[in-house]
Amino acid sequence: MSTAWLTGATGAWGGAFTRALLETGYDVLALGRRDDPDLAVRAGELGRTWGFVELDLSMPLSFTALRVAIEAAVPELLRGVPDVLILAAVSTDGDRAALMATDYLAPATIIDGVAQAMQERRSGRIGVLVPQNARLGLAGLADVAAPQAALWTWCEAKRDELARVGDGVTLTVVIPPRTASATQRYVARQSGHSAALHPPDARGLLRGVLAGRRRVGRRPWLAAMAMLVR
C-alpha cells in the first residue's frame, strides 16, 4: 500500500492534489483545521483509506507531538512514514507572527521531520506548493508574501541538500497556475491585480512530484519578467 500525508486538503489546490492522490492509488491522511467529508466519501468510493488529524499550523508545532497525535487518531495503515508528503496549505489570516508560523515555520518543521524519516527508509517524495506572488512583492501583500517567499527559498535549499545526499528522497517545488480560490481573491483584492484563472487539475503536477522533479508548474522566470514591467 502507498500512503500520503497532505496539508490544505480543503483548499482548491489541496483538494485537487488529494483527489489525484486517491485516484492514483494512495491512502491519504489529511492534516488541517477541518475534515472534508466529500473527500472522505471519494476515498471510500475508490477503496482507499482516509484519515484526518486536526492541526493548526499557526500554533507552535513539534513534529514529535504531531506523530503522537497521528498514532492516536488514525488507522494503522496511515501511521507510518508516508510515501508522499504534499504541503498545500496557505493562509492569509492573522498578524505577521501568525503568518510566519503558518506559511513558513510549521511547513518547514513538518518537512524536516518527514524527510528525516524518509531518509532512514531511503525513499520518499515531497511536494511543496508555493504561490508566484511570493516573488512579486505586490502592494498590500508584504506580510502575506514574505513567509511564503521564505518557504520557497528554504525548500530550494532543502531540495538541493536531499539531492546531494542522494538517498532516494526528493523535494519538488510546485508553482501551480492561479485558480479561483479564497487566497487568490484575497491577493486580487489587496493588490488590485487580477490574473487569468485555471481549473485546479493536479494530475500533471502530481506526476512531476512522483517522478522526483526539481520543480513543476509555472516557471519562476515569469515572475521575474512581471517584475520588469511593473
Write the layout of secondary structure elements.
Blueprint: E1 2-7, H1 12-24, E2 26-32, H2 37-45, E3 50-54, H3 63-73, E4 84-87, H4 96-121, E5 124-129, H5 142-165, E6 169-175, H6 182-191, H7 203-210, E7 215-217, H8 220-229
Parallel strand pairs: 1-2, 1-4, 2-3, 4-5, 5-6, 6-7
Helix pairs in contact: 4-5
Count the helices. How many? 8
Largest sheet: 7 strands, parallel
- SSE run: EHEHEHEHEHEHHEH
Q: Evaluate the radius of gyration.
A: 17 Å
Measured between the Cα atoms of the first and last residue, the distance is: 49 Å
Strand order of the largest sheet: 3-2-1-4-5-6-7
Quantity of strands, as a count: 7
Shape: globular
Q: Segments where pLDDT lies below 50 for 5+ residues? A: none
- SS class: alpha/beta
Strand content: 15-25%
Fraction of helical residues: 40-55%
Characterise this structure.
With 230 residues, the protein is of the alpha/beta class. It has 8 helices and 7 strands. The protein has a 7-stranded parallel beta sheet with strand order 3-2-1-4-5-6-7, with helices on both faces. α4 (96-121) packs parallel to α5. The mean pLDDT is 89.
